[in-house]
Design goal:
By secondary structure, the chain is of the alpha/beta class. Strand 1, helix 2 and strand 2 form a beta-alpha-beta unit. Helix 5 crosses helix 6, helix 6 runs parallel beside helix 13 and helix 7 runs parallel beside helix 8.
C-alpha cells in the first residue's frame, strides 16, 4: 500500500526484528558528524539569508506542568541521544530515562508485558500505532496539547490514516526517510531512473546491495512490479529469490551492515547501490565525492513517531516533552546532528535555501505519495529464508 492509500488496518502480522542495523548505522554517522564538526554552519552554506536572525528567536509557548517529573521513554537509540534530550533535562531539571529497543516487535512486546506501567512515552514506526491503539497500550493525541510543534509539520504528516484508529490520532511524527539508489555521477551515466540500474549488466561488479530484513526481498518485489511487497505469495517469493540471484552476480558485494555502503562508495569499490539512509549521500558529498541519490516514485520508507503510554502517571509531563522535542527549535538540532529528514517543516525558517536543498527539506508530499512504509511481513520466515540462502 502506498502511504496515501493507507486505511485503518491493524491486521498486519507483527514485525520480526531487523531494524537494529539501520539504527546502529545512524548512531555511527551521528558520532562521526559530531567528531568531525559536520553541522549546518560548516557546510559552506551562507547563514545570512536565513529568514530570522537567530534560532534563539523561537520560544516555547506551552507552559510546563506545575510538578516537573522524570520521564521514562522506550525508544530508538538514535532519536534519544544526549545531544537531543540533554538540553531538556538541563533546562527543566528532570531526567529522561531511556530504554532502547531493537525493533518494533520488540517494543510492542515490552509494552504488552507490563510496559504501560513502566514507560511514559514509546516510539514506533508508521504502521504500528494502530496495533498499539487496538491493544489499549497508548492514549489518543489531541493536537491542541502541542501548540509549538503541531502547527508546522508538513501537512502530509498531520493525522495521516496510518496513525489513526477509530477516528482518533495516536502518534506524533518525528522524522522520515525513503529508500533510493545512490550513485557515482562520474561512473553511472545516464543517471538511474529506477531500481533497474542495480540489475544493469554494464555495472557488473560495481553494485552494492544490502541483505537486511526490511529491504532485500521488498526491493526485488518492487523491481518485479509486485504491489504488496510485504505480503508476497510463495510464487512471488520464489521469483524474488531468482531475481536476487541475478543481482548477486552483478554485485561487488552483498553486505549486512549499512555502514559498509559508505565505505564501498568512499573507497571507489562500488559505483551504485541501494541506500536506506539518505545521510550516506550527504556525508559523501560533504567529503567532495561525486555522489547523488535517486529516489524512485514508488519506494519503501519509514516515519518515526512518539506515543503516550496509557498507563503513564506523568501524561502532562510527557505531552510537554513531546511538544518541546518535536518543535522547530529542537528539530533543528536533530537535523544538525543526524541530518535525518525531520517531519517538522518549521525548521526551514532557520535555514538558507542552499541548506534546505542540501538537507532535502523541500515539501516531501510527492515522495511520500509513493512510499510503501515499513510494516510487518505476512510470511516473515519465508523472507528470512531467502536472506539466509543469499548469504551462502
Amino acid at each position: 500500500m502506498r502511504i496515501n492509500d493507507l486505511e485503518e488496518d491493524s491486521s498486519a502480522v507483527p514485525e520480526r526484528e531487523g531494524r537494529i542495523v539501520r539504527r546502529k548505522f545512524i548512531r555511527q554517522m551521528a558520532k562521526a558528524a559530531l567528531s568531525s564538526g559536520v553541522g549546518l554552519t560548516l557546510l559552506g552554506c551562507p547563514r545570512k539569508n536565513s529568514t530570522i536572525d537567530s534560532i534563539k528567536d523561537f520560544k516555547i509557548t506551552k507552559q510546563p506542568p506545575k510538578e516537573l517529573t522524570d520521564l521514562s521513554m522506550l525508544c530508538w537509540t538514535d532519536n534519544a541521544l544526549d545531544e537531543f534530550v540533554g538540553p531538556f533535562e538541563s533546562q527543566y531539571g528532570v531526567r529522561i530515562k531511556r530504554t532502547y529497543f531493537e525493533g518494533n516487535a520488540n517494543a510492542f512486546e515490552k509494552m504488552k508485558l507490563g510496559g504501560t506501567q513502566v514507560y511514559d512515552i514509546v516510539q514506533c514506526d508508521a504502521l504500528w500505532p494502530q496495533k498499539y491503539a487496538e491493544a489499549g497500550l497508548v492514549d489518543p493525541i489531541d493536537f491542541r496539547d502541542y501548540p509549538d510543534s503541531y502547527p508546522t509539520p508538513w501537512d502530509c504528516f498531520k493525522q495521516p490514516a496510518y496513525q489513526m484508529y477509530k477516528g482518533e490520532w495516536y502518534a506524533f511524527p518525528n522524522c522520515w526517510d525513503a529508500v533510493g539508489v545512490g550513485y557515482n555521477t562520474e561512473k553511472v551515466r545516464p543517471a538511474p531512473t529506477g531500481f533497474d540500474a542495480l540489475w544493469d549488466k554494464k555495472y557488473k561488479g560495481q553494485v552494492a546491495f544490502p541483505i537486511v530484513e526490511d529491504n532485500t526481498v521488498q526491493v526485488a518485489a518492487l523491481h518485479l512490479g509486485y504491489d504488496d511487497i510485504y505480503c508476497l505469495t510463495q510464487e512471488q517469493l520464489s521469483a524474488c529469490y531468482a531475481d536476487l540471484v541475478l543481482l548477486r552476480s552483478n554485485a561487488r558485494k552483498l553486505y549486512t551492515d549499512l555502514n559498509e555502503i559508505e565505505q564501498l562508495f568512499g573507497r571507489d569499490e562500488a559505483a551504485l547501490g541501494l541506500v536506506v539512509i539518505s545521510w550516506v549521500i550527504l556525508k559523501l558529498k560533504k567529503q567532495g565525492l561525486p555522489f547523488e541519490l535517486f529516489t524512485p516514485r514508488v519506494t519503501q520508507g519509514w516515519v518515526d513517531t512518539y506515543m503516550i503510554s496509557s498507563g503513564s502517571t506523568h501524561k502532562e509531563m510527557a505531552k510537554f516533552f513531546i511538544n518541546w522535542y518535536t518543535s522547530p527549535v529542537s528539530q533543528m538540532n536533530f537535523l544538525k546532528v543526524e541530518s535525518k529528514r525531520t517531519c517538522q517543516a518549521g525548521v526551514r525558517r532557520f535555514l538558507t535555501q542552499a541548506e534546505i536543498d542540501f538537507y532535502g527539506m523541500n515539501n516531501p508530499a510527492d515522495v511520500l505519495a509513493g512510499l510503501l512504509l515499513y510494516k510487518p511481513t505476512c510470511r516473515a520466515e519465508k523472507y528470512a529464508e531467502i536472506l539466509a540462502r543469499l548469504k551462502v
